């Protein structure tokens, strides 16, 4: 079966998941993003690459932050952006997901940025849209959040250069995190030799080792010698779900403090996809400290999203 | 009394209802829309006709779908679009409708696209705005939805050419449908010789024959020989209102299936304003079948709305 | 301590409050706004001054009207505008105000327009953003609403020319009004010799005289000889708070009617920041009468906001 993300020429047709994405395409996206970072320094932060294109932000699940990053990326490429909080409208009227998408396609959309609570929603849409329409998955259920994974790769490459000598540790709720899934696929594809996940058993998927990671339940052991530490957001609803005793308890065992970070490599970088729970998964002294690259991640995220859109529109 | 939609030169000043609109103006709108359809095939789907104009989407009643079509149309004409979900704000603060509109007028609006649950709201606004401001009715109560009616005319002309030899059947809840009202006025103005409405008695306005339609309560009889079948959306709240026994019962008598469509003309087209209730008023085999022109309606809808805006801005 | 609104060269860096703003800068804003008023008469109501700049409307408190005026102003300057109803998103996820702002800054924002229910929020943000980012306070708690104060000054100058011979009366709920506070600071800075506030004791701050105003509890006495009357909006929640007996009672004593206005100067102008409570603080015959400049205030408001943005972007 052909990769549903690639066209007949093996070029990117949709961005749905990092799983199965060739390393060459990941590198193409990162390379394309480079010049977009420097747009920040210009007077006019715009390029006309997508002028006259209509990009629809289809958010079936509300996420102002993610929606905003895509909106900014699209506007900096001079596209017309239409924001649709779809949950509130047609689906409420009993219309099916595919009817909604077909309708918007008929409005001559060029690209859909899709966020949905259900895993696989973006795939389903990609299977049904006309050939000239491109779909970007902006997060589907627990499945994937590929642009987040890609911006993380951009960040790591920016600070560390080469992936093939790194020790990378992902800390926290891997079980419920589409971000973690996307990161793991990207890091293994790019050849990271030692990829660790650090979490209590209740927050790890069964047989997570098969994804190519080493499992640690002890933070100190897992952080030892790490070049990159990626903290995951702890969703408070997990507490209510009785998977965890309390935020305080979690912080005691898995919260990243400056002291705990000392066992990592001296030039370790600390990442977080945001929004942060200060004092739960991360201490403010780390979040705002010299190892933190959390805000650069956000800046790079705009450039990476611009790159994905520009590549898709060109294919 | 002068037609409130026309200026002293008999040109379109506002688009409020198709009732009373001269056939020449309906044809002018359809003709103007033609070149906008082909914009779809261009690389840059934009024309600078409304550059620097401010178009306000004043939605007192929420409708993401309709709002989106106007937003896209305006952006393709290079206008600046301001979306206002007015219900949620000033009116909640006790401000009157006219105060809200006067305020927005004072912000130098060029055009208002108005959606309101109350019949006559767009008329009221049109009566009070400054002479340079144009009002488009995007649906008011049960009264009118003229751009929907116009895009339906565009669709029929596109597939059938001439209106003066057609048998057109409108099926469903005519009583509560502003869409049906707009369609009936447009079709009679354009000279359709046989216009039928098919519905149970509880879903027809009293004395609907005076609008120039033939009434059928039996679907098979009404569809016989039809060139165009227009299905109406069945609003589920009508069920609760005890006007109808159930969705299943409705489908049994008035749902359009391929079998029932067989009595129509072999090259019949099937239309629906959306969003569809599959399995209630229309069977999926018809909605997605070879007679369906439901998605082209959406595409033409953008072009027709661009045409209305372009004509208004030019007058 | 340096004025947090000015940069090292004494130029406007942020617009947070009119308190402490030098008269020269107020006049610079009003002068810059003048040509923007005439943009209204142009075919293309746009200038490219802010092309490629990203302006974020950060509304932690909902206000469609104010948000719209800033959105229009920014679009007429050709900026890219991102609307964020922040209350509904990140803060709900437990993120701090400064984390939210830091994130948006990292998306390469050029300007934040901030509305917040808490006094001092815009100041806090201004203290923490990168040096190239400008903050405009669009209303914070009971503290300040400087662009409203500035547009009022523009309106008074437009109709009266010179501030130094005027009798100005502010009528109504001064206690809870950030608008009143901004007006009082602006009017005293610009040299108004007689500034009056007219209100019941329960709606006046303690020691309001220290702001440089004369206090009247009787409407007729306070209006005598006034050149400018500024009505304040009476927020209905004040009624519930038992500060006032009823809307009817309030209107009887402080509602502005044509009869009561007769003691003012014959060429008096009447202003109101909107939205109006007709029949509570103001009679419709005054609101819509020949002395009213309430709608011109709105028009000038766009020009003044454009001026503030243009000046900030230039500094």
Description:
- Three copies of one chain form a homotrimer.
- A five-stranded parallel β-sheet of chain A has the order 7-6-5-8-9. A four-stranded parallel β-sheet of chain A has the order 2-1-3-4, with helices on both faces.
- The first copy, chain A, has twelve helices and nine strands.
- Chain A folds into two domains: 23-145 and 299-314, Rossmann fold; 146-293, Rossmann fold.
- The mean pLDDT of chain A is 93.
- The two termini of chain A are 21 Å apart.
- The first copy, chain A, has 315 residues and is of the alpha/beta class.
- Chain A has helices spanning 23-37, 64-76, 97-106, 121-128, 146-160, 178-189, 219-223, 236-240, 247-254, 258-261, 284-287, 294-314, and strands at 54-59, 80-84, 111-116, 134-140, 167-171, 194-198, 214-216, 228-231, 269-271.
- The interface between A and B is medium-sized, with 25 and 30 residues.
């Amino acid at each position: 079966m052909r990769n549903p993300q690639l066209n007949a020429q093996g070029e990117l047709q949709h961005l749905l998941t990092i799983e199965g994405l060739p390393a060459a395409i990941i590198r193409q996206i990162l390379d394309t993003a480079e010049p977009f970072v420097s747009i920040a320094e210009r007077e006019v932060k715009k390029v006309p690459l997508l002028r006259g294109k209509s990009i629809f932000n289809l958010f079936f699940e509300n996420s102002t932050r993610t929606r905003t990053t895509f909106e900014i990326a699209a506007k900096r490429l001079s596209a017309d952006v239409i924001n649709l909080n779809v949950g509130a409208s047609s689906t409420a009227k009993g219309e099916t997901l595919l009817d909604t998408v077909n309708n918007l396609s008929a409005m001559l959309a060029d690209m859909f940025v899709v966020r949905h609570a259900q895993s696989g929603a973006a795939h389903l849409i990609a299977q049904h849209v006309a050939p000239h329409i491109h779909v970007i998955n902006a997060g589907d259920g627990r499945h994937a959040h590929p642009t987040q994974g890609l911006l993380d790769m951009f960040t790591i490459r920016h600070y560390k250069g080469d992936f093939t000598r790194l020790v990378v540790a992902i800390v926290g709720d891997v079980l419920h995190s589409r971000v973690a899934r996307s990161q793991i696929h990207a890091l293994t594809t790019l050849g990271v030799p030692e990829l660790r996940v650090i979490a209590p058993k209740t927050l790890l998927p069964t047989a997570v080792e098969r994804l190519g990671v080493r499992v640690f339940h002890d933070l100190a052991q897992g952080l030892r010698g790490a070049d990159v530490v990626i903290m995951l957001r702890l969703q408070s609803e997990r507490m209510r779900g009785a998977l965890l005793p309390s935020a305080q308890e979690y912080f005691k065992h898995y919260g990243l403090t400056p002291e705990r970070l000392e066992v990592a490599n001296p030039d370790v970088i600390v990442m977080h996809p945001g929004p942060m729970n200060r004092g739960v998964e991360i201490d403010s002294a780390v979040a705002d400290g010299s190892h933190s690259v959390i805000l650069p991640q956000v800046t790079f995220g705009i450039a990476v999203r611009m790159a994905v859109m520009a590549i898709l529109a060109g294919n």
